[in-house]
Design a protein that fits this description.
The protein is mostly helical. A two-stranded parallel ribbon has the order 1-2. α34 packs parallel to α37. The longest helix is centred in the C-terminal third of the chain and has 30 residues. The radius of gyration is 49 Å and the shape is elongated.
Length: 1003
């Protein structure tokens, strides 16, 4: 802490400038930081008395007490300055008390700072602006103690001036009378009337405050207990309550003021020792609360964690209030200890030196507590210490939840303060301790022992694993882990090895305790680390015993738990032994607290059976869940099947469980596990694509070749032949799919997405396997440097094949099944010019939007490309195998070419669709065939003859053979040329086909 104290500039207060005074005074209405969880140990006053009321009353007591120390009249500095500046001629003023008027000059370090071991701020020679102060600036008029106290207590100049004016009047009217023999609120009520205030509200507020203070000091918390037979308390109570409802007329000797004075004086002048002092502010806890307000002024109003450099001068003046408040050095030490501690807590516990200062002050309190037997003192001290101890123990009984890397530096100070408070409470206040021999009780060691055991039990019960909140632990509850492990061991043969994880977590907790906390606690308990590991050993041992009692067969989980428990025990014992090297018994007492765990020595290797059980169970799971899978695209945002998510979760969990098995042969057995999981994923892919059909399932069977009749419009021909064998273009598999929603377009997209997601997950899993191998104790470099046995061999190829098959099935289903009514049944049927491609494009675009919205972005281009290929194939099939309902003249070629361009443009989508290169690549076949439709018939016949002769050789010279249908359309392929002639609507083509092949005009 670098700024707890702020030094003076060149021997003068930095508050010496008018700007500084104004800044400090501007905080009159500021309120200190509340401490809701830290109530005052000195008791609560009436809720009608606010902190502001107490502060103003304390300030009045301070000014009046300092005035009497000199015996000279008191005047306000501010008043004197105003008098000098406003009057053309000097007006004589009464001198200020030397104790208040004395210029503040701070030495390099105050006595209080030296006592606390605190250093001055390095900014002590800087002005509030942060710049070095020059001699000229330092020569400005310095601040007096009175001005400083006014600013520190946030009292305005007007209020201060009014208080001093009243004290001057009181001094003038009661010469030689000590302030201790007066009741200050009563005297102030006597001096002022409503005209002395800016408004009636301020006057009434001022009067009520003084009346409430009189009630608190004389009736609620009197120094001398009230006599039940005395009627004065009842009279005073009636006067005060009446005045609170209807303000008194103060500032004169009227009847109401005389009644108030008589009642107040009769109560205040009662004494236990015969002294003449008035007792109105020295009853507990009113005196402590007022004194707290004065001590709070030692803290800078602008830097709430800093004690001002002028604390020596200020404290000297504050102590002059002891006579009025009934305080002494011992009570001062109690109150100041609390103020320092309270300030540390309420300012965010950031300034450790405040806590250190409170601890140093408490050491003084401890000396005084040993030397006094005063029951009242002991009662107050007990209350204060109990509050401090309660606060510290709330944190220390669970210090793992309290301290982390950000505040660990404060732990030693908090422990020191708590131990000091406990020692005073036990050794100096407890009667039981005094009856026993001191050597029988080591308060500090007992408290630390309690803190360690309590905090570690709490940490064990509330946290576990690595990477959590304070002591580097996770937020998973250790006890919950143990309970779930115990239940699993009873209910299932293959439970998760939770206690093995727990053993690792406890080991980490022990190491963290040894490194972070034990070095701090060792100051009070030499075996702090030993106590910590003994506590953890017992906590884990209780859970282990219950776990072992529930094991009915030796499982890999049991193997890991027992091996982990054995390792944990060795680690804990090692820490205990190291911590006990210098102890008198060599740590035997701690070791006796750690009876050995009953771990099984012989562990059979059942890992291969474990693998087989897991793989068989996964295959059964795939069968069951894929039968129920609906392939719903709304299942999640990415549009994949929920069964795939669960599949990969199970596989990931299986791999994690495998590497958690405490065996030394992970690399050796990993290939067995990977092969089993690989086959499960391959099986899932095969089941996921099953029944979805393929490309050939949707392509229609080509009808037999016919020739066209010249001029025929083919009205209704296709409709009549709809049920002919040639129109049965789908096999039984497709017919089954038509009635199953799981094979719709969105569902096929989900299937593709699912396989793609599994492919991506496999890559992650393979990397994770390598990471697991690197972390295996028994793994060698060669175990993870090559991919043998650590990669999925079958699943990636099966998934890729599945995506390809499903993508083609989806594409050809859309074109040849879902759009058959506008393609196969509509495009160019009858007159080409009246049955063009627009309806097909419209519905195809709608399907493309559905696919684009549903399909995974990584496979979207592939699927759209397959749809484009299917549409090009469908377009060619209509032109070359569309049946007798279609015929094309040479003049129709332009229509066909324009329609095909529109089809390509749909997929290009003005540059937002597929790349132009891809479209050109897959449209090559169509572009090669389309020129045949604008070629004249004679040229086509001649080209057909030539190509047929080239294909079949000399055997074709006598009679041209009928070329087989290959389906590989090409402008130089005989069957393609023949089909163009078959659909050529002119006489020459019809004669050639009739003569050469005797083709009919209709089916």
């Amino acid at each position: 802490m670098a700024h707890l104290f702020r030094d003076l500039s060149l021997g003068h207060s930095k508050r010496g400038t008018n700007a500084a005074v104004a800044a400090a005074a501007s905080t009159v209405n500021a309120t200190p930081m509340p401490a809701a969880d830290l109530p005052s140990p000195f008791g609560q006053l009436s809720p009608t008395i606010s902190d502001s009321d107490l502060r103003l009353t304390a300030y009045e007591i301070f000014v009046s007490a300092c005035r009497t120390s000199s015996g000279k009249p008191l005047s306000s500095v501010a008043q004197a300055e105003r008098s000098l500046t406003s009057s053309p001629t000097p007006i004589p003023t009464l001198p200020i008390s030397p104790s208040l008027q004395r210029t503040l000059t701070s030495t390099a370090a105050s006595r209080v700072k030296k006592a606390f071991g605190l250093k001055s701020s390095p900014s002590s020679k800087k002005s509030p602006s942060g710049k070095e102060t020059s001699p000229a600036k330092a020569a400005k008029k310095p601040m007096t103690v009175g001005e400083l106290m006014r600013c520190q207590m946030r009292v305005s100049e007007d209020t201060d001036s009014r208080i001093r004016r009243a004290l001057l009047r009181i001094a003038a009217s009661q010469v030689g009378r000590r302030i201790e023999s007066m009741v200050l609120p009563l005297e102030l009520l006597q001096q002022f009337k409503s005209s002395d205030f800016t408004d009636q509200q301020e006057y009434e507020s001022w009067q009520k405050r003084n009346l409430k203070i009189l009630e608190a000091g004389l009736l609620l918390h009197p120094r001398v207990p009230l006599d039940k037979l005395n009627t004065a308390p009842q009279r005073l109570r009636q006067i005060i309550h009446g005045a609170l409802d209807r303000p008194l007329e103060t500032g004169r000797n009227n009847e109401s003021m005389q009644l108030l004075r008589n009642a107040v004086v009769s109560l205040a002048c009662r004494s236990l020792d015969g002294s003449e002092a008035c007792h109105w502010a020295d009853g507990y806890p009113l005196n402590f609360r007022l004194y707290e307000m004065l001590l709070e002024a030692c803290f800078d109003v602008n830097e709430e964690m800093s004690i001002i450099d002028e604390v020596d001068e200020l404290m000297e003046q504050i102590k002059k209030t002891w006579g009025i408040l009934g305080m002494n050095q011992m009570l001062h030490n109690i109150c100041f200890t609390w103020v320092l501690f309270h300030r540390f807590v309420t300012t965010g516990q950031a300034e450790i030196e405040l806590l250190d200062a409170a601890d140093n002050q408490l050491a003084e309190v401890a000396k005084e507590a040993k030397a006094t037997k005063d029951p009242e003192y002991s009662k107050i001290l007990n209350s204060m210490l109990s509050s401090i101890l309660g606060w510290t123990e709330k944190r220390l009984l669970a210090y793992h939840d309290t301290f982390d890397s950000a505040n660990i530096d404060s732990m030693q100070n908090i422990v020191s303060l708590g131990v000091s408070a406990a020692k005073i409470l036990v050794e100096d206040i407890s009667h039981e301790y005094r009856r026993r021999r001191k050597s029988e009780v080591d308060v500090a060691r007992n408290r630390i022992d309690t803190y360690i055991r309590s905090s570690l039990r709490t940490a064990f019960a509330q946290r576990g694993g690595a990477g959590g909140h304070n002591c580097q632990l996770t937020d998973v509850m250790i006890m919950e882990k143990a309970d779930s492990s115990r239940r699993a061991s009873k209910n299932r043969s293959n439970s998760l090895p939770v206690l093995a994880i727990l053993a690792k977590d406890v080991g980490e907790l022990a190491v963290n305790e040894k490194v972070v906390f034990s070095p701090i606690l060792k100051r009070w308990h030499p075996l702090s680390a030993g106590v910590a590991v003994a506590t953890l050993h017992a906590c884990y041992g209780n859970e282990l015993k219950q776990f072992i009692s529930g094991i009915t067969e030796l499982t890999p989980d049991a193997v890991q738990v027992l091996r982990a428990a054995d390792k944990l025990e060795k680690d804990l014992v090692q820490i205990a032994v190291e911590d006990s090297v210098d102890s008198e018994d060599g740590g035997k007492a701690i070791i006796r607290e750690m009876p050995p765990y009953e771990a099984e020595a012989a562990i059979a290797n059942l890992v291969k059976q474990w693998i087989k059980t897991r793989v068989d169970g996964l295959k059964e799971w795939v069968d069951k869940n894929l039968q129920e899978e609906v392939w719903n695209p709304q299942a999640n945002e990415e549009g994949y099947a929920s069964s795939a998510v669960e599949l990969m979760r199970i596989i990931d969990e299986t791999l994690n469980s495998f590497f958690q098995l405490p065996i030394p042969m992970h690399p050796t057995l990993l290939p067995d596990l990977m092969a089993g999981l690989d086959k499960c994923i391959q099986y899932y892919a095969s089941k996921a694509k099953s029944g979805c059909g393929s490309r050939n399932a949707f392509v229609p069977t080509m009808p037999p070749l016919t020739r066209c009749t010249t001029g025929s419009k083919f009205q209704g021909v296709w409709k009549k032949k709809e049920k002919s064998p040639n129109s049965q273009i789908r096999n039984s598999q497709v017919a089954v799919m038509n009635g199953d929603n799981s094979f719709g377009i969105p569902q096929l997209c989900v299937r593709i997405n699912t396989m793609q997601r599994i492919r991506l997950e496999l890559e992650v899993l393979e990397k994770r396997v390598i990471t697991h191998l690197r972390n295996c104790e028994s793994a060698h470099v060669e175990d993870f440097s090559n991919g043998l046995g650590k990669n999925f061999e079958l699943a990636p190829a099966a998934l890729l094949e599945g995506i390809q098959q499903l993508s083609e099935a989806l594409a050809y289903k859309i074109i040849f099944h879902d759009l058959s009514h506008v393609l196969w049944d509509g495009l160019y049927v009858g007159e080409p010019s009246s049955s063009r491609i627009a309806p097909l494009l419209q519905e195809l675009e709608q399907n493309l939007m559905i696919v684009s919205d549903t399909i995974h972005e990584r496979v979207r281009t592939r699927v759209i490309t397959d749809i484009m290929r299917a549409s090009f194939d469908g377009f060619l099939l209509v032109l070359l195998a569309g049946g007798p309902s279609r015929a094309f003249s040479k003049q129709d070629s332009q229509i066909i070419e324009d329609d095909f361009k529109s089809l390509k443009d749909l997929f290009w989508s003005n540059g937002d669709g597929l790349p132009a290169e891809s479209i050109d690549k897959f449209s090559g076949t169509v572009r090669g065939v389309l020129p045949l439709f604008r070629t004249d018939t004679e040229s086509l016949i001649q080209r057909f003859r030539q190509v047929t002769l080239e294909t079949f050789g000399s055997s074709a010279r006598s009679r041209l053979p009928l070329p087989p249908t290959s389906g590989q359309w090409n402008s130089t392929e005989p069957n393609t040329l023949l089909r163009v002639l078959c659909y050529r609507n002119d006489e020459a083509a019809s004669r050639f086909l009739k003569k050469t092949y005797n083709l009919p005009k209709k089916l």
